[in-house]
Design a protein that fits this description.
Chain B: Keywords: Cytoplasm, Isopeptide bond, tRNA processing, Ubl conjugation pathway. The complex is a heterodimer. Chain A is an alpha/beta fold. Chain A contains 16 helices and 15 strands. In chain A, helix 4 runs parallel beside helix 5 and helix 4 crosses helix 10. Chain B has a 5-stranded mixed β-sheet, with no helix packed on it. In chain B, strands 3-4 form a two-stranded antiparallel sheet. The chains are: A alpha/beta, B alpha+beta. The complex binds zinc ion (ZN).
Chain lengths: ~450, ~110
């Protein structure tokens, strides 16, 4: 009982602390302590102390705080001023957004916006390190914003707790100078590209899965008043005019990801954002080039990309895109990395977890787990045999032999999609007794919810 | 002029899953006239290479790698570390020891 009381008390205090922190943050912003406004000439209005005038343009605190990066010739005083005037929108407060946010907040970028529709889940924390254990079920944008404020209270941080879409993206993005694509799905990537093209805001696009990462800058525009037509880099659609087939798209929740992989890419997104804000030229930036990182054999490859496609639907002179569209429809995918519930088998071939328990007690029942070997080793129902879905072709004969000797066969997987695919294959192959084949609706997630609370949910 | 053409083929970003999970393949192509006697091709281009890959390396679900006579959307082809668009895409004539890379774009974060 003491434990529960204490946990409650800690939770209360945490809430109170958050409230006070928010108050303080607002107060500071109103007092103009946060993000000193540098005017066009670079002079500043800071803490309100009058009578002292430093020779430089940066206030004492900023010189001290950012000295290590100001010393870098590529950044310098001018660069630091630009960073402090800079506004960066980070879309996705996950594996890429966390490291990117940390370095941009640390560098003193004047304003950071964080977009995320999702809440913190325990499976996020191994890589999304701005969220602690206690932040579970709290908005990721809020959680990340709070952590970043504790790193730098001098900058303005805005949490956007929304699903970015065609109806809100332009309005939000137009308040920023650079967009970081730290998202986790295809529709959002096309959406952000079109936002970048329409608003002329450069897009630093990072992605990661398993042991690999990719990084490039889309929609870069050179600022050159002398040139009639300053250089513009390719956009996402110049490279990928049409979206990939949904079944070819992997996700961190289905395929996994090693934390330091998005960590690496996110850090480099922050570096490119810093370089972009301080005005490094395009030869120095990852423009018309893509970085390909393989964490397994530890190789970084920088490859040369095509130039802007003069037939691109989004960014060319002959572009047909004039406004944002429905990106979930364009990609035939939802704008998140959650898995869908498929309906492949007829309902009479699907059972619930409770029914599975009853059938397992009957002789001759065969339980076939079609998850990967790795997942099967992580956790499985006692007595289940493992036929991974992607090895099914090779092991099909053996499985069919097993099936012919069983009185009833139940397929199971993590969530109840692959189990239907496998059951359907077996039903097509088997000549008689098709009715003995079935799958578990909701898979092992349902098993954990209704039968065995100790079974891991991942 | 050697009879065979040696190439290194790389798959990454998940494309390797369709190729026995092997990312690097050192291959040797026979003369294109021998391999594709019915085609008018005189030299190996990426177009014929895709036919060869389909017949010799691709283990499963060709629709996740190919679409028509090209690669499916979302796969970037690199010829010696540069976008194939810079070299005429399917028409690029393969050279001895070329490195051809097929990268599936990642979307996770
Ligand atoms: Zn374009």
């Amino acid at each position: 009982m003491d434990l529960i009381e204490l946990e409650k008390e800690v939770e209360e205090l945490r809430r109170l602390l958050q409230k006070k922190e928010n108050e303080l943050c607002l107060l500071k912003q109103n007092l103009n302590i946060v993000s000193p406004v540098l005017d066009q000439n670079g002079s500043h209005s800071d803490t309100g102390v009058t009578g002292t005038e430093t020779k430089g343009t940066l206030p004492k605190w900023a010189i001290e705080r950012y000295s290590r990066q100001i010393l870098v010739p590529e950044i310098g005083v001018k660069g630091q001023e630009k960073l402090m005037r800079g506004r960066v929108l980070i879309v996705g407060a996950g594996g890429l957004g966390c490291p990117a946010g940390v370095y941009l907040a640390g560098a003193g970028v004047g304003e950071l916006g964080l977009v995320d529709y999702d809440a913190v889940d325990i499976t996020n924390i191994h890589r999304q390190f701005l969220h602690g254990e206690k932040m579970q079920n709290i908005s990721k944008a809020d959680s990340a914003a709070r952590s970043l404020r504790s790193i730098n209270s001098r900058i303005k941080i805005t949490a956007h707790n929304i699903q970015l879409s065609a109806s809100n993206a332009l309005e939000i993005a137009s308040r920023y100078d650079v967009i970081l694509d730290c998202s986790d799905n295809v529709p959002t990537r096309y959406l952000l590209n079109d936002v970048s093209v329409l608003t002329k805001i450069p897009l630093i696009s990072g992605s990661a899965l398993k042991m690999e990462g990719q990084l490039t800058i889309y929609g870069y525009r050179e600022v050159d008043d002398k040139k009639k037509e300053p250089y513009t880099g390719p956009c996402y659609r110049c490279l990928f005019p049409s979206p990939p087939p949904p079944e070819a798209v992997g996700s961190c929740s289905a395929n996994g990801v090693s934390g330091p992989v998005p960590g690496t890419i996110g850090c480099l997104q922050a570096l490119e954002a810093i370089k972009l804000l301080v005005g490094r030229n395009r030869e120095s930036l990852l423009v018309q080039r893509m970085l390909i990182f393989d964490g397994d054999d530890m190789t970084f490859r920088t490859v040369k990309l095509r130039s802007r496609n003069d037939r691109c639907a989004a960014c060319s002179d002959n572009a047909t895109l004039t406004e944002l569209i429905d990106y979930e429809a364009l990609c035939s995918m939802p704008a998140n990395d959650k898995e869908l519930d498929l309906h492949i088998l007829p309902p009479e071939h699907r059972i619930g977890a409770t029914e599975l328990v009853q059938q397992m007690n009957k002789p001759g029942h065969l339980l076939v787990d079609v998850r990967s070997e790795n997942e099967y080793q992580m956790c499985c129902i006692e007595g289940a045999v493992n036929y991974p879905i992607d090895k099914l072709e090779k092991m099909f004969e053996e499985l069919m032999e097993n099936i012919s000797g069983a009185s009833r066969v139940t397929f199971i997987c993590r969530r109840g999609n692959d189990s239907q695919v496998a059951a359907k294959l077996a039903m097509e192959k088997i000549e008689k007794n098709r009715e003995k084949i079935q799958d578990v609706e909701g898979g092992l997630h349902a098993w954990a919810k209704y039968i065995d609370r100790d079974f891991p949910v991942y | 002029m050697p009879e065979t053409l040696k190439l290194q083929i790389n798959f990454s970003g998940g494309a390797e899953l369709l190729f026995d999970k092997i990312k690097k393949h050192n291959i040797e192509l026979p003369s294109v006239r021998k391999y594709l006697p019915d085609s008018k091709a005189e030299k190996w281009t990426i177009r014929e290479l895709l036919v060869w890959i389909k017949g010799n390396l691709l283990k499963e679900r060709p629709e996740l790698f190919l679409q028509g006579d090209s690669v499916r959307p979302g796969i970037l082809v690199l010829i010696n570390d540069a976008d194939w668009e810079l070299f005429g895409e399917l028409e690029y004539e393969l050279q001895q020891n070329d490195n051809i890379m097929f990268i599936s774009t990642l979307h996770g974060g």
